[in-house]
Design brief:
The protein is mainly α. It is built from 10 helices and no strands. The protein is flat, with a radius of gyration of 16 Å. Keywords: Membrane, Transmembrane, Transmembrane helix.
Length: 144
C-alpha cells in the first residue's frame, strides 16, 4: 500500500494502472489522490513564482494554448508546479488537465483495459484532447 502511494506521488498514471490491475480496493483512494494531489503541487509551484516567470519567454506566458500544451508535454508533478508558478487559476489548470491526461488516463485504465483494449495513455490523451476541441468547435458553430 505504501509503495502505491509513493508511486502515485511520483508517476500517478502508473500508480493508477497498478492499482487497477493489482489492488482494485485501492482504486477509489488512488483516483482521489490523482485529482487532489495537484492542489499541493500548485501551492508548491506558487512559492517558485518569481523564479520561473523570469526564465520563460513572454510569448509563452501569453499564449492561449500554453496550459493544454503543458499538460500534454510535461510530467504530472512538473505541470502542476509550473501552473502554480505561472499563477494560473486552479480551475483553468484543471480544465486543461482534464482535456488531456486528466480524463484520458483514468479512461484508459478504468474503461478501455477491462474491455480488452490496450492503448498507450499518451494516445488516449491526444484522442481526448482532439475530442474536446471537436466538441468545443461544434458547440461554437451551432451556437454562434
Amino acid at each position: 500500500m505504501a509503495e502505491l502511494l509513493l508511486l502515485m506521488a511520483a508517476v500517478p498514471s502508473v500508480g493508477l494502472a497498478l492499482a487497477a490491475g493489482y489492488a482494485p480496493g485501492f482504486l477509489p483512494l488512488a483516483l482521489l489522490a490523482y485529482y487532489t494531489y495537484p492542489l499541493l503541487l500548485m501551492a508548491g509551484g506558487r512559492l517558485l513564482r518569481g523564479r520561473w516567470r523570469e526564465r520563460l519567454p513572454e510569448n509563452l506566458l501569453r499564449h492561449p494554448m500554453r496550459l493544454p500544451l503543458m499538460a500534454l508535454s510535461l510530467p504530472y508533478p512538473v505541470y502542476w508546479a509550473a501552473a502554480g508558478a505561472l499563477g494560473e487559476p486552479w480551475l483553468q489548470a484543471y480544465g486543461a488537465f482534464l482535456r488531456g491526461p486528466g480524463l484520458a488516463i483514468p479512461l484508459a485504465v478504468l474503461v478501455l483495459q477491462p474491455l480488452g483494449m490496450v492503448l498507450p495513455p499518451a494516445l488516449v490523451s491526444l484522442l481526448v484532447l482532439a475530442a474536446s476541441f471537436g466538441a468545443e468547435w461544434t458547440l461554437r458553430r451551432t451556437l454562434l
